[in-house]
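Hi! If you just cloned this repository, the fastest way to understand the data is to look at a raw example. We've pasted two of them here, unedited. The first protein comes first, obviously.
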Amino acid sequence: MQIDVTRDVFRLAQVFTISRGSRTEAKVLTVRINEGGVTGWGECVPYARYDETLESVTAEIEGLSGNLTRAALYDLLPAGAARNAVDCAIWDLEAKRAGCRVWDLAGLPAPKPEITAYTLSLDTPEAMQAQAEKHAHRPLLKIKLGTPDDMPRLEAVRRGAPQAKIIVDANEGWSAAVYADLAPHLVRLGVALVEQPLPAGEDEALIGMARPVPVCADESCHDRASLPKLKGKYDVVNIKLDKTGGLTEALALRDAARAQGYGIMVGCMIGSSLAMAPATLVAQGAMVTDLDGPLLLAEDRDNALIFDAAGVHPPRPELWG
């Protein structure tokens, strides 16, 4: 079994800004695992918020050796980007060797398209209203907020897209006082979900606080080990494969979270169709699907995922799985 890691860069269609900063390109790692002339591949997006860099994640992957299995990988690497790319590559390799689709291997029904959110970058109210008007035809818009001056932005987006369902991602940018002040306005403006309003290390303040709009754990939820600390704070969990460490744990987290009464959101970092492909399996029946990474790119992989009025479609075998 041979493992190769390469760096790939995909230009964004426009500058993308959240409360932590801006970017013009997506830098990803592509992992290829070859065994017996068959190659499986996967993609990950190292994320500085979790102390990951392209160099550190590459080193983790290159430190692996031997004939890897998904079960063994769980003990060799922690949850995170490195394990994600390798885990997804093993799934792809296994499906190709078996001559079937990944969902057959996993014992899952064949996936169907899921409506996905489209993310509006953080900007001035005027620019965000213009973005909203341009994408008002989309059924679900996600707004990046997380500053002390968010109300004008939210009002502007609602004016620009009066019929769209809206979810808000604060990226840990609010305090408890700011969130409590904004909550009634979120209801008034028809916001359906709020992602991670408070910093992960300060979310104890959510216990006992009124949540008129469902609150989703993103930075506070990585894998199944995160679930005990979420009780009483959150209504929904955001499952991202770069946090769970791959499809294997993502499916397990989804089942465990549902069993504990949480709604499911399936999200992504900004990556190519290869990164989104495994997540389409996890997104089946989710409360919110947010797999719009490829829609934000100016370029993508060959045999890219199909996005249309029905949503994001499962991958073709030429791409993954």
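Ok, and the second one:
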Amino acid sequence: MSLLPIVARILLGGMLTLPSLAAIAQGSTSWETIQPGGATRCATGTPYNFHVREADPKRVMIFFNGGGACWDAGNCDVAARPTYRPFASAEAGNDPRNLDGAFALDNAENPFLEWSQIFVSYCTGDVHLGTQDREYTRADRSRFTIAHQGWANSNAALEHLFERFPQPEQVVVSGGSAGALSSPLFAAIIARHYPQIRVIHFAGGAGGYRLPPPAALWRQWGVFEAFPDWYNAQGETPETLTMPDLYRLAAAATPTVRFHLFDHAYDAVQEDFLRMLGHPAELLPGLDANLAELKADIPALRSYVSEGEFHTLLRYGELYTRETGGVRALDWVKSLINGRTVDDVHCAESEGCR
């Protein structure tokens, strides 16, 4: 399967109509674009921005956007075939005004209508955790530099969260795809900043990465330089840290956080990135193995595995149409963000998950 149509699908997302005031109840209809400046920037040095919608200050949802990753000259070069979002623009899928799902302000079923929301754009190819500028060399020996500075960008959004919403009663920390991978760490950071409140985590489209520790990626992006000392108390190294380990470290540091994972059984985007990383495989067996091991270590963790090849949930109308085993994804999300304990949901085995 070619990666380009899939990446195009990720970047374009869904379009939606202008919001209806009648449908939004007490929620705000206005998104504000924040340009933090300072050390923030996108992959090629263009300005970074994120978006905020202020409604109920006691309930805040922060979403870390997805959009691929890159780690070599071939997939980082914006003049070639990049496999990530290189800009914080609406055209690159980084504006919630153009998305559906949890950002559909004209849908009365949207469980986040009355919540304040922060949409953390993603444009650095480093799953929001990079701290390094890296020089890459093309086949013709020309060179270019990519700013893997996702950590500075994400921290700007976190600082805005803490300043603008100093006393929330509940925060939902969510992420899609690349943003889902790093979301456990961000949930832990937020839980430590607000130790007296309920922090609930929800990640979509990143649970199936079952492969050896991607040490080259961790080092290329400078991920360990981003980790707070309290987060990596177990002393993981780039050679030992797997992607699911990000959950184990977060749960050990902040045991009160409730973690939730959503995946499609044969998510085509995750399968494509497994192939690019040198570990081609059908997603479901590795996804199930990851979940089983995580649940053994984090008993309160819950998961929803749906059939098909679609990628993520919260950015799309799939939030409203997806149903598995008689359980609507929408109802599952509503329950967990309201602090209720949800059951695991899994598509029928074998052909039923196709």
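That's it. A detail worth noticing about the second one: The chain has one domain: 3-353.
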